[in-house]
Design a protein that fits this description.
- This protein has 210 residues and is an all-alpha fold.
- The mean pLDDT is 96.
- The chain has one domain.
- Helix content is 65%, strand content 0%.
- It holds the Pfam family DUF6064.
- Keywords: Membrane, Transmembrane, Transmembrane helix.
Length: 210
Amino acid sequence: MLPFDADVLASLVAQYNGAWFPAPVVALLLGLAVVGLAWRPGGGRAAALILAVGWAWSGITFHLGSFAELNFMAPTYAGAFLVQALVLAWLGLRRRLDIGPPVDATGRIGLGLALVALLVWPLLALTSAYGLAAAEVAGTAPDPTALLTLGVLLLVRGRIRWLAAVVPAVWTLVGGATAWVLGSEIQALQVLAGPLAIALIFQRNRRAPE
């Protein structure tokens, strides 16, 4: 059992979005830019740094600033999100995230995950009493941030840095399990994204040259 229900969580997200507006709008635009950078040579560096900011923002403002009111695990989640932010920042600064347009099934699945995170996930808030005010946006909310990151990692050309996928993959399990307990079956499907992404990453790395 969780110490909150779906309505309480939606209310918290709506308050969070309102308190930090227009951050969710800016985050959505930056998320779309991240996907667009796959078509720009050398765009992986900027994409990694933007994602790093999103993970740090979600960890500090959402988990520590808001979610801690409902869940005693929030500080632990925040720590994991900050670790992920550091990993992505390191990859970006070292130019170790070489993304490109999808050219195979892995890339197409990655693009699909990214678009679901950016365009579909916020619309799921329409099922709540708070409507789009409670929209979960990649870069400011945990679940879509994890999905977007996994999608972008699958757009990497050549070998994929699997270490960058660990926290996002684990979070899809945490977020999906939470959604299932709250009765949000669609959001619960994210539990499939993490294992799928990890499997695709290992498959790609096994075939890609060193």
